[in-house]
């Protein structure tokens, strides 16, 4: 590989006078730009020919890693394969060329898809109605909490300002509650990694707005005490919120609505195969139980007879508003295609297969990696680093060494319950052969940690960029390019 094109910045490939474009002849005359809008000096842009630009960015793209490249066991993120048919449907001009402001009579088909998707999610989760407006999972959390707050305010119950969050929760849970203007109260986990019901009892009173739970939780464990928890919360007047980040193993097994949850969000870009990573795209639909539908945000789509209509007002004193339009419609299209492709007959296989794959890896490695909670997991599980701590090889070292073998590292140092946490989630898509190869590599790294620990501690060795100083990068990030003086 030519390192000049592969390892340099586009600015470093620049040569004065080089161009990769030609503009058509000016047919509109000359118009002066007002002085106050002009730059004081020319913009420092790279000057490159088209071939150099194409080669540079093509080579850079080879550094990207995704599910299409290889195994991506990123725990708590459900990095699921996105079938090509999803992309084909989302790219259809009948969808891609729609404008959000065009009259509803001209987009009846698109509105039907939106409406049918809402109904599909209701059937899958056991909740009454959904909005697809939120643009991400955390946006869905915020929307759900706004619905909960609006519900309590509509009843004049203004003192309910506390949200109880487990100590194992995703960081977005307390963050979303804080953004919503609510107070966060932490409930502890038991030694078995699930919510401590006794600790919860002492936190419940008439100031609690909701309890946020992820099920399975971030340790990949099913919260078996949910029947008791939802009973206690509802008795004190609070609502149950379901963080749908880990919904994947529940598909075909159980539904949050049947468990007693009142509000939930779903990550379409996790559970329903649409691509994510790098900050987007995302979609965080929010569902509610019967009796809370009026608090869902507008706009929404309703069906009257055989026609679909856009409703822009819900006539409520406590309106929830999260966006002018209908969320990330193209992401929703991909998820809808995925649901229709599987059908109700096969979507029920997703959860059991994801659970089987996770337990297969866990059981195959627990003799060399420390398993702090030795029980059956769901879609993911957490190791606490290598079992042999005498090597000095950390979870970070193992993650970096995995890169040398062509694997994306799993989630590390989360959840915070374990010092050397390594969270692995294989998803249901992966074959036994892929899992066996991954297991073999992790076992080999465990052997290297004993025989040649420095090789692991200094990894990666085969990537374009070696090990970076994470602390320095966090404290003194270089976010812009600056030309060095000659």
UniProtKB/TrEMBL annotation:
EC number assigned by the record: 1.4.4.2
GO CC field = cytosol; glycine cleavage complex
User: Could you give a single Gene Ontology term from the biological process aspect?
Assistant: glycine decarboxylation via glycine cleavage system
> Which residues are the signal sequence here?
none
Matching entries from Gene3D superfamilies are given as: 6.20.440.10, Aspartate Aminotransferase, domain 1, Type I PLP-dependent aspartate aminotransferase-like (Major domain)
Swiss-Prot/TrEMBL cofactor(s): pyridoxal 5'-phosphate
- Which InterPro entries did the record assign? GcvPB, GDC-P_C, GDC-P_N, GDC_P, PyrdxlP-dep_Trfase, PyrdxlP-dep_Trfase_major, PyrdxlP-dep_Trfase_small
Q: What does this protein do?
A: The glycine cleavage system catalyzes the degradation of glycine. The P protein binds the alpha-amino group of glycine through its pyridoxal phosphate cofactor; CO(2) is released and the remaining methylamine moiety is then transferred to the lipoamide cofactor of the H protein.
State how it assembles.
Answer: The glycine cleavage system is composed of four proteins: P, T, L and H. In this organism, the P 'protein' is a heterodimer of two subunits.
Example GO molecular function: pyridoxal phosphate binding
SUPFAM superfamilies, per database record: PLP-dependent transferases
Q: Where is the Glycine dehydrogenase C-terminal domain?
A: 353-455
Which Pfam families does the entry mention? GcvP2_C, GDC-P
The answer to whether keyword Zinc-finger applies is no
Instruction: List the protein's name.
Output: Probable glycine dehydrogenase (decarboxylating) subunit 2
Keywords, ordered alphabetically? Oxidoreductase, Pyridoxal phosphate
Q: Which domain of life is it from?
A: Bacteria
Q: What is catalyzed by this enzyme?
A: N(6)-[(R)-lipoyl]-L-lysyl-[glycine-cleavage complex H protein] + glycine + H(+) = N(6)-[(R)-S(8)-aminomethyldihydrolipoyl]-L-lysyl-[glycine-cleavage complex H protein] + CO2
- Sites bearing N6-(pyridoxal phosphate)lysine, chain numbering: 270
Which family is this sequence assigned to?
Belongs to the GcvP family. C-terminal subunit subfamily.
The record places domain Glycine cleavage system P-protein N-terminal at: 27-297
